[in-house]
Amino acid sequence: MSRDTVRPPCVHPGFARPLPARASLPFLGRVSPGDSSRRAGRDGRKWGMESGPAIFAGTVFALFGGGLLTWTVSRVRHRAPVAHDVNPVASATLAGLAAVSALVLGAWCFTHL
């Protein structure tokens, strides 16, 4: 394999092809596999493939927590049971704690991008 062959570490050498003359792949670059400095954002933080799942998980937690909190508050305001055959105070408290926990987890996911 020639020196000009660029391949990510997850690609088998048999599938890698040499680059044409004076061609480069900016998303891969010619760096060692352990060097991740090419993915630094404007503020110097590293951006990689981990940001997509963090955004998805944060969105799911935030939507679930917001929806559960809204539903719980509306049920309590209308004096309707949050859960049937359960103590109303306990069910509202447990649902509120679950909603706030989901919102906190969503915020935590967004801060770890």
UniProtKB/TrEMBL annotation:
Bilayer-crossing regions: 47-69, 89-110
Basic and acidic residues compositional bias, start-end: 36-45
Record key words, sorted: Membrane, Transmembrane, Transmembrane helix
Organism: Streptomyces avermitilis (strain ATCC 31267 / DSM 46492 / JCM 5070 / NBRC 14893 / NCIMB 12804 / NRRL 8165 / MA-4680)
Name of the protein: Uncharacterized protein
Region (Disordered): 26-45
